[in-house]
């Protein structure tokens, strides 16, 4: 049985062009990019080429493009690094309630260090109100962090409007752009800093990028502009560059539309969370009344379809802080499954998966 993979928000298959791009750096080109010798110079040239190509593809004409190990590290640099770089002990940080766990943990760390963490709420679609952000900003606010798109629902936040407010009040803004789909869209928001994860875009796990338009960010060593310490991973930088250059998937919006239509037609009353807001094309969060997500995922797996109850990074937690913030009850949240689509998926697969969902939900409702 060929499995149908609908958990692309957790990770994506590595693109062939990304594999090809990194292979030379596992053999012939092995130097340390910081070494002052010929092998080091060769590696440095490859690293800077990957940086230049990535920045060019994303439209980054100024600022610093920093290679990291992924979204979590980029978020830590953007949140903790930028606040500590202010040189101030104390002050406020504004954070969206539905942020990824890595951003929330970074803010909690700052809270333990004496900073005042202020959480901005969301409406029933999971949207943060820019006017609330404006009201929450104080004279001592050091950072506003609001994600570009939610990892559970795909809802796109009004980052452009929030960034404009932050600029008017001279407050730096960071956005977690791991689920952006197309990183070039994030550049257009005007956020001062953002982070992306390579393995959401067809690059290997362990690859990522952090960008700052010039806002000071604390690092720890000389590599990557002194922002991200440690010997640079040239192979993964080349792979990320190749994945970004390949562009975003062109089929995911169509696949999601076909899937959602089929499922809601077959299961009237199914709720699509965040459907009243603009969403990234590849994510659909669905709640099925009277069915527990864990049981549905098991049933789907038996039929060859793989999905998720939410973010892979919070799979060890009970309940969803995202859905709770949106106003869903615990029972509604427990009945929610996230389906996420990738460039490798086909419409035929989507119809098979939708049929599996309909059959599984009807079966589980009969035996509850």
What's the short version?
The protein has 368 residues and is of the alpha/beta class. The chain has helices at residues 16-22, 38-58, 71-84, 101-112, 130-136, 159-168, 183-187, 234-246, 252-266, 293-302, 321-325, 330-334, 347-367; strands at 4-5, 64-68, 92-96, 116-120, 141-145, 173-176, 193-197, 208-212, 271-272, 283-287, 305-306, 336-340.
Question: What share of the residues does DSSP label as strand, in percent?
Answer: 5-15%
Structural class: alpha/beta
User: What is the number of independent domains?
Assistant: 2
How confident is the prediction overall: mean pLDDT? 95
**Main β-sheet description:** 7 strands, mixed
CATH classification, class level of the largest domain: Alpha Beta
Number of helices: 13
Write the CATH homologous superfamily of the largest domain: Type I PLP-dependent aspartate aminotransferase-like (Major domain)
CATH architecture of the largest domain: 3-Layer(aba) Sandwich
| Spans where pLDDT lies below 50 across 5 or more residues | none
What order do the helices and strands follow?
Answer: EHHEHEHEHEHEHEEHHEEHEHHEH
Computed CA radius of gyration, to the nearest angstrom: 21 Å
User: How many angstroms separate the termini?
Assistant: 28 Å
Number of strands: 12
Shape: globular
Query: What is the multimeric organization of the chains shown?
Result: single chain
CATH fold-level label of the largest domain: Aspartate Aminotransferase, domain 2
Please state how the strands of the largest beta sheet are arranged side by side.
2-8-7-6-5-3-4
């Amino acid at each position: 049985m060929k499995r149908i993979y609908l958990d692309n928000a957790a990770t994506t298959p590595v693109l062939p062009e990304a594999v090809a791009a990194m292979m030379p750096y596992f053999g012939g080109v092995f130097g340390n990019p910081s070494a002052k010798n010929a092998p080091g110079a060769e590696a440095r040239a490859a690293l800077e080429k990957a940086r230049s190509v990535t920045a060019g593809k994303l439209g980054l004409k100024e600022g610093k493009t920093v290679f990291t190990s992924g979204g979590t590290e980029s978020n830590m640099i953007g949140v903790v690094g930028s606040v500590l770089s202010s040189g101030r002990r104390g002050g406020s940080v504004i954070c969206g309630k539905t942020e990824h766990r890595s951003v929330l943990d970074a803010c909690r760390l700052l809270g333990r260090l004496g900073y005042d963490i202020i959480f901005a709420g969301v409406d029933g679609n999971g949207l943060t109100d820019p006017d609330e952000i404006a009201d929450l900003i104080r004279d001592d606010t050091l950072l506003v962090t609001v994600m570009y798109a939610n990892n559970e629902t795909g809802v796109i936040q009004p980052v452009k409007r929030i960034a404009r407010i932050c600029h008017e009040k001279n407050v730096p803004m960071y956005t977690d752009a791991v689920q952006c789909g197309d990183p070039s869209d994030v550049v257009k928001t005007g956020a001062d800093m953002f982070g992306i994860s390579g393995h959401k875009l067809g690059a290997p796990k362990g690859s990522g990028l952090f960008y700052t338009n010039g806002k000071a960010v604390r690092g720890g060593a000389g590599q990557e502009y002194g922002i991200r310490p440690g010997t640079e991973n040239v192979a993964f930088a080349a792979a990320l560059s190749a994945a970004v250059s390949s562009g975003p998937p062109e089929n995911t919006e169509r696949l999601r539309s076909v899937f959602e239509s089929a499922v809601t037609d077959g299961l009237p009353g199914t709720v699509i969370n965040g459907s009243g807001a603009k969403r990234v094309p590849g994510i659909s969060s669905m709640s099925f009344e009277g069915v527990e997500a864990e049981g549905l995922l098991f049933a789907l797996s038996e039929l060859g379809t793989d999905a998720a109850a939410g973010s892979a990074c919070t799979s060890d937690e009970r309940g969803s802080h995202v859905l709770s913030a949106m106003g869903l009850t615990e029972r509604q949240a427990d009945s929610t499954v996230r389906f996420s689509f990738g460039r490798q998926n086909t419409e035929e697969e989507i119809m098979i998966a939708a049929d599996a969902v309909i059959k599984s939900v009807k079966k589980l409702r009969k035996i509850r």
